[in-house]
Fold each of these.
Amino acid sequence: MASYSYDADGRRVSMTTSAGTTRFFYDGTSTRVLYETNASGTLLARYIYGPNNQLLAMIRSGVTYWH
């Protein structure tokens, strides 16, 4: 089971599961997630976007996943 927290703009800012808490960080006021960290601030994932705001890739644990 997971619990979620949202900011005033309705964006998910954290997710907590039995494995721990993940925090989501956004590009200003947009809905584009730039990166995720754990509760200690360790980087878990980065997101790369194209010129039209489309998601191009996610980098997690040193592996790049192209979309």
Amino acid sequence: MSPHPPLKDLLEQAAETVPPADVPRDTWQRGRRRHRRSLALRAAAVVGVVALVAATPGLLDRATDRSAPQPAGSGASGPGLPDHLHAVPERMSDRDNDGSWLREEVSDDLAVGRAAAAWVTPSGLPVVVDAVDGRYHLLDLPDFLPSDSLVAGWFPGDRAPLALSPDGTRLAFGFARPTTDDGTSVPSGIRVVDLVAGEVTRELYLRGGTGVAVTQVSWSPNGEWLAWAGRQTSYWTTSALTANTAVAGVVAPDGARQRLRPPGEATVVDDAGTATVLNGPQLWIHPADGAGVVERSTAVAEVTSTGALSTAGDRLALGTSARQDLVVLELQRDEVATRSGAAPDDQTWSIRPLGWVGESVLVQRTPADGGAGRLTLVPVDGDQPLRDVGTVDGGTDTRAGIGSLSVATDLVTAQRPTVTRPAPDWPWSEERWVVTALLGGLTLVLVLALAWAVVRRRRSAQRPSAT
């Protein structure tokens, strides 16, 4: 037996000398409250982060390199016409006080590569869509005529002097450079830009009066000839313009120019140089061999002065402003073939032919209410059904719809009329930045206020209670 007392006895003696612990009755309740506050604080932090992310989508994308091509979607191997053409926000057409384009996205670098589609915004800004990656290019074309405020009213959106070559590598447009106020002759005519090299390769001056304002331009099916229509001016300065005489003509591959009389609202030309002047339902055919002018009439009142020649040059598809799906004129036999049927959604759609694809015509259909349009392949054979192959944005409260299109028809085939491309990612508007900043700031204030309230309550709970 050990002379020392057992360990158990020692522990009992020590326990008898320890004063009893004073544990407040609300200890458990206070612990639970602190745990709940901790959970609430964490939840508030999560809500704040989620709110900030939701209020500022795309902030990381703002820092990405916009010059890098975006990957195309399915069916996008090789160049092609996008199956959805998106309208450009009106803010991208903003101008400075001197009339220059205000947005940095508008560029005078014309080396954008092969294009699939082109059009002009209501404010006169040219838009070109890349055929390879679907990127949108806003171009500052040198002396582009619709950019001049004096003549901007001549181009109400359904027509502008801008045309892509059939292969999409060149862009023809009307230009003018009024520089004086003394009423002297103004350099004007047609320019052709090589979109691959980014250079003006042809500058075709048109003489007459004090200058010729080109209002329409088109290519022959093989991309060698140019046809145009416009107005001859009698007075043209930087601040005033008078133009009362309609003019039209063609430009041969070697640059030779020929005036066509009588003129009309639009002109088309075939690969041999035979030109057709359009003036509503009336047409005048000017043979390339210089023979007499042949007059034709479609006998369709709703025909507009837009047209597309077949590859052989023997048929002309015409635009309409009513419920005709297609109007085709046999130029050599003076025959008119029409194709009509129920309009989409039982409303009036205008039809603009863009080019021939085999025995079908690619048309742009635009509803009268300004909504979304369609790209449609319309077979000449009336027994074949129509094929909607794409969508064209209509107008909204924040943007105008897409006007008359020009497309690179060589990129369109019956088997692969369109391809999938990503939507353009336009910079945010100033209003959206302000709203985003306000929402983010408000969310941050709410989170900080909640955190401060939790901290105050925790400090208050930690103070010793009176006993």
